[in-house]
Design goal:
The protein contains 12 helices and 18 strands. The strands form 4 sheets. A 10-stranded mixed sheet has the order 6-5-4-3-7-1-9-13-2-14, with helices on both faces. By secondary structure, the chain is α/β, with parallel strands linked by helices.
Length: 465
């Protein structure tokens, strides 16, 4: 490798779909086998308190790519694949991470899931585009349509393998005179929890799985969408498939790491492993994410995500960090790592903060945040190290939990006088946070609700289901 390539700051973001933080050995799950992700966590930096800003697919992805809240970019729910919603460019007025990196000289590629509208077309900021065709919901194996730089092709096989193959192609065919950014969007852990490699499913099918403890049914809403699927009737089979998906994905992560090694790119590449949001696989009696109940939920399993950073040459490796971080912070961290913060216009309108100092053993210039904020449509959340406040505005049931005493979020303390001062304090800070950043016409709290992106959102005028 020449000296110029050694100094490149290449970036690979492996962005899984519906991967709950709890579903990795690095986060304490003893049922799963993921030697490659274990290696990245042991030799890299693991963020113990990583969260999604919105616990559903499209908004979480939009938050990562724009560095802005749903109440800024306007995507508040998953985007259904139809001519009205699916063929629209939902981020056309936003500046994305891909655009910023491409403008600064990076070669930018995507392999896998986009799910932000116009999935078939190569989006602005990308030089290489291998995407799912926008056919949602989608299975995990069989013959499906894909887009290669805007051209539709049909391929047969496991989606995880297809996505990995094209990611490897990008690494081999890239312009070696440029640094690169590669976004790898896997879908393996998304429903349906079936049709994963039998050799892996069988490994878990008859194994005693103890990581998911039986807990009382979530008492603050009815089951909805994915949580009405048949997986709930055979939880062992559903969980065996979910775990098989994680293990299959782990094999692909290993393959990508092997390619970096053989191409002599390991030392010059920052690898990020994360997910759009979390998932319940029977916790609280729920199968699914934030929209698996109605009203929408913000349970820990829905909002917590894995986040592992790996680069043995540039990071302070082999550590675990406890600070609260999310996709908005990850956006800022990658901008900071690539040395292009100067290219960010109106930086004060971005809620995130670079956590690069946390993973490179540098001194912070000011204290780190101690509260995590989130939203899903007109649901808003503030969570500190112990307490969680969830507001279902304007007329829903507000919730307040003591997570230390009530980790399963069963006892709503919103009316308890002993917590009134704390509740009012957290509510005031929550409202101040969104007043500072939200864009009125994109806000989840606007009159008549956010702009619909599907037919099942609580604020959608027409119902599909």
């Amino acid at each position: 490798m020449n000296k110029k390539m050694e100094n490149f700051k290449n970036i690979i973001v492996i962005f899984n779909d519906d991967h709950g933080q709890w579903a990795l050995p690095a986060y304490g799950n003893k049922d799963l086998d993921t030697p490659n992700l274990d290696y990245l966590a042991q030799k890299g930096v693991l963020m113990e308190n990583a969260f999604t800003p919105t616990p559903v697919c499209s908004p979480a992805r939009a938050c990562f790519f724009t560095g802005r809240l749903a109440s800024q970019h306007g995507v508040h729910d998953y985007i259904v694949s139809d001519n009205i919603h699916g063929n629209r460019n939902w981020l056309k007025n936003e500046v994305t991470l891909a655009q910023l990196l491409q403008a600064s000289g990076f070669q930018v590629g995507l392999s896998g899931k986009w799910h932000l509208g116009n999935d078939i077309e190569c989006q602005s900021g990308f030089d290489y585009w291998f995407s799912l065709s926008g056919d949602y919901p989608t299975g995990h194996k069989g013959r499906y349509r894909y887009s290669i730089n805007g051209k539709i092709i049909e391929l047969s096989g496991y989606k995880t393998h297809m996505i990995t193959d094209r990611a490897v192609d990008f690494l081999h065919d890239r312009d070696q005179e440029k640094p690169f950014f590669l976004f790898v969007g896997y879908t393996a852990t998304h429903s349906p929890w079936s049709d994963h490699p039998e050799r892996l499913v069988e490994h878990y099918r008859h194994k005693k799985l103890s990581a998911v403890q039986e807990t009382p049914l979530y008492p603050f809403g009815k089951q909805n969408l994915e949580s009405l699927n048949s997986s709930r009737l055979d939880p062992q089979e559903g969980l065996a498939n979910y775990y098989a998906a994680v293990s299959c994905l782990d094999e692909s992560v290993g393959r990508l790491m092997d390619e970096l090694e053989t191409l002599e790119l390991t030392d010059s590449t920052l690898v990020i492993y994360t997910s759009d949001h979390g998932l319940c696989c029977g916790q609280h009696g729920i199968w699914g994410k934030g929209n698996s109940t109605m009203p929408l939920n913000m349970v820990e399993e829905s909002i917590r995500i894995p986040l592992i950073c790996y680069n043995p040459k540039k990071l302070f490796t082999g550590i675990r960090r406890i600070e609260f971080v999310d996709h908005l912070d990850l956006f800022q961290t990658l901008i900071d790592y690539a040395d292009i913060k100067k290219d960010l216009v109106n930086e004060s309108t971005y809620p995130g903060r670079s956590f690069l100092p946390l993973i490179t053993n540098e001194i912070l210039n000011k204290p780190w945040k101690t509260v995590q904020y989130g939203e899903y449509g007109n649901v808003r959340m503030a969570r500190d190290i112990r307490y969680k406040l969830i507001l279902h505005e304007p007329n829903g049931q507000n919730l307040f939990f003591d997570l230390k005493e009530d980790p399963n979020e069963l006892c709503n303390l919103i009316s308890e006088n002993t917590h009134l001062e704390r509740i009012n304090f957290m509510k005031s800070n929550l409202n101040s946070f969104f007043r500072q950043y939200e864009v009125e016409e994109k806000s989840g709290m606007r009159i008549n609700g956010p702009e619909p992106s599907n037919y099942s959102s609580p604020w959608a005028k027409d119902k599909m289901f």
